[in-house]
Amino acid sequence: MAGARPSPVDKLIKPGRIRAVLTTLGREIAQDLIPVGTTLPPEPELETRFGVGRGVVREAIKTLAAKGLVSVRPRHGTHVLPRHEWSLLDRDVLSWLVGQDEPDRDLLLAIQEVRSIIEPAAAALAAERATRNDRWRIDTALAAMQTAKDQASALAADKAFHLAILDATHNPVLQGFRGAIDTILSTVFTVAVVSTGGWFRDNLPNHVAAARAIESGSPEKARAAMERLLGYTRLKLSNRKTAIAAATRKTVGSAVRSPKKTNLRNTRKRHGP
């Protein structure tokens, strides 16, 4: 008698387990908890740690290798590769890198540079190629941004606006950046918008200008409007980075000075005034 086939539940559970192992190891590598050059623990240790079988561990590591985070060599183990080897526009890799309480501002600014290369050109192409339905999607997203009542709806509308412009290029390679742009917008919105109250509204006129330029079929105006839009975001990220650096220096300075005062008070207690 043939062996029993896996039940549908088993098929659902295994991908879920692979995803859990992949996400945990990916985050630990991205956040330098498992540094570059480090050898990952042997498969039996990972199996024990995560409570999964060898097949799950191997699939997770295979995916990490495909994303450029690790190198798997027989008899040499699995090593963490330098960051320049990673697929930094991969949705998972980006989310692991920026999914910290305080994301790396230098990385976010580097991401903004990439957006500044891609999105103005996409806006110019959209002005030339957008269909009636494309323009409707862009305008609908813009209207949703203008009427957003909370952070979640504002973020969803902002994403829809930028992704609709990418789609309006009708260029399959540019459309391939949808996942990266989606992840980037989530992070940039949380860091630059929420932590710097009010500027989401201040940047709306630049969104309006981009939409109107695309609607009028003017590539030059669409490109310029998108450059202004992204430039505003880059400015806010830079200002936020400077403010955090100043606050960190102040905190460190206070921490360095405090022990001296404490020691002086302790000395006075022991030896009198």
Description:
Strands 1-2 form a two-stranded antiparallel ribbon. The chain is mainly α and 273 residues long. α5 packs across α7. It contains twelve helices and two strands; from the N terminus they run αααββααααααααα. The C terminus is likely disordered. The radius of gyration is 25 Å and the shape is elongated.
Count of individual beta strands: 2
> Helix segment count?
12
**Order of SSEs:** HHHEEHHHHHHHHH
From the N-terminal CA to the C-terminal CA, the straight-line distance is: 92 Å
The average pLDDT is 82
Rg over CA atoms, rounded to whole Å, is 25 Å
Class by SSE composition: mainly alpha
Strand content: under 5%
Helical content (DSSP H or I, runs of 4+) = over 70%
Low-confidence stretches: 6-10, 243-248, 260-273
Q: Main sheet: which strands, in order across?
A: 1-2
Shape call: elongated
Largest sheet report? 2 strands, antiparallel
Briefly, what is this?
The chain is mainly α.
Task: Tag the structure with descriptive keywords.
single chain, about 270 residues, mainly alpha, two-stranded antiparallel sheet
List the helices and strands and how they pair.
Layout: H1 8-30, H2 43-50, H3 54-66, E1 70-73, E2 77-80, H4 91-98, H5 105-129, H6 132-147, H7 151-168, H8 172-175, H9 178-194, H10 199-202, H11 204-216, H12 219-271
Antiparallel strand pairs: 1-2
